[in-house]
Amino acid sequence: MNGKIKSRKGYGLVFLLFALLLITNRLSGQQIKERYRLMFYNVENLFDTVDDPVTADEEFTPTGTRSWNDFRLRNKLSNVFKVAAAVGEGNAPDIIMVCEIENRTVFEMLIDRTPLRYHDYEIIHKESKDNRGIDVGLLYRKERYWPIDERFISTSFTSNPGHISRDILYTKGLILNGDTLHIFVNHWPSKFGGAMATRSMREDVSRLLKNTTDSILKSNPQANIIITGDLNTDPDDQPIKETLGASVFPDTSNSSLVNLTTAIYPSKYKGTLKFQGVWECIDQWIVSKPLIDKTATKTKTSTDLTYIGEFDFLLEDDKTHLGKKPFRTYTGFTFNGGFSDHLPIYIDLLLYE
Question: What residues have CB less than 8 Å from 323, skipping those under 6 apart?
Answer without folding.
Answer: none
